[in-house]
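Ticket #4471: structure output looks truncated?

Reporter: J.K.
Steps to reproduce: submitted the chain below (197 residues) through the standard prediction queue, then opened the result file.
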Amino acid sequence: MPKLPEIQPVPMRGIDHLAFVTDDLLATMDFYTRVLGMQLVHVRRVPFEQDRGQPPYDNLRHYFFNMGNDTLLAFFEYPKGLAKQNRDLPGGMQHIAFHAAPEKFDAIVSRVRDSGVNVIGPVALGGRFWSAYFYDPNGIRLEIATSRLEEKTTVVESVLQTEEEARAELETLFSEPREVEKWLAQMPLKAHEKAAV
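Returned output as attached by the reporter:
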């Protein structure tokens, strides 16, 4: 039986920060600190610089929150009255899923709900996914996700599939079998369930 691909190191460690836009920084600060328990860790103004991909406004507030595991969540404060983004269009951010350890999941969901936020779920989404959904004051869809698997795994390990599961999905994307095989050869798969080639 050939050796299976393993989870490979990647050049990045993970997320440094996610940067979003708000037109109500006070409500955003309250929500992320009081409701989600994050900590405000850095506040600054950002001067506009041409051709650097920065927001098209000068001297914007740019505030950072500690979202755990040495990662940051940041917000730029835009002027009021601008059109809202549609999260369901290409190029939009569909949602953010924050990971919670299984033993902390229920308490976090309760905290959000007890803060007066409408929470959908928790719902089982198949596999390891157990999630609750809600919106922040900016209309950003948020998710608290955890694993209900009995075995302890990392987040990446928890989403590994069997060859059959991955193949069935890839065949809906590629009509050429060689493309399916190319991508399967790169994916770490559940070893104990991988069929002999």
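Triage note (M.O.): checked the attachment and the full token line is present. Residues 160-193 form one domain.
Status: closed, working as intended.
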